[in-house]
Amino acid sequence: MMTVKLLANAVFAGAAALFLLAVAPAAAGEAAVKIGNFTFGPQELKVKSGTTVTWTNEDDIPHTVTSTTMAFKSKALDSDDKFSFTFSTPGTYQYFCSLHPHMTGTIVVEAATGSNATPPK
Ligand SMILES: [Cu+2]
């Protein structure tokens, strides 16, 4: 019985640590991608884990932001419409416009660790 209780305490402590790790990157901030002239700009964007990226359509015709793996997917964005997605898992995310598939972009999400976890504003 004693062993079970110790184990339960250890699991709880581990869960609490994981919770803190999961919550911390939320302060990583925000980044923006503009859609204009059938181009995502910047075409490749590097962000820290936990960053919210907001796309704004500055063209006069609709575009979408569609992940090649369906990790995220916007509706058709009219002029000045925005779409946001928070990247909480490090990795390389490729996306395109489902209306104009030659429009492509990449978001590279790096782990938010150490002194880079909360960049000063
Ligand atoms: Cu488009």
Q: Strands, helices and their partners?
A:
Layout: H1 2-23, E1 30-36, E2 39-41, E3 44-48, E4 51-57, E5 66-67, E6 82-87, E7 91-97, E8 100-110
Parallel strand pairs: 1-4, 3-8
Antiparallel strand pairs: 1-2, 4-6, 5-7, 7-8
Copper (II) ion binds next to strand 8.
Compact summary:
It contains 1 helix and 8 strands; from the N terminus they run αββββββββ.
What does this structure look like?
With 121 residues, this protein is α/β, with parallel strands linked by helices. The protein has one domain: Sandwich (Immunoglobulin-like). Helix content is 18%, strand content 40%. The chain contains one helix and eight strands; from the N terminus they run H-E-E-E-E-E-E-E-E. The protein has one helix at residues 2-23; strands at residues 30-36, 39-41, 44-48, 51-57, 66-67, 82-87, 91-97, 100-110. A four-stranded mixed β-sheet has the order 2-1-4-6, with no helix packed on it. A four-stranded mixed β-sheet has the order 3-8-7-5, with no helix packed on it. The radius of gyration is 19 Å and the shape is elongated. The relative contact order is 0.21. Residues 20-26 have low confidence and may be disordered. The protein binds copper (II) ion. Residues 63, 97, 99-100, 103 line the site of copper (II) ion (CU).
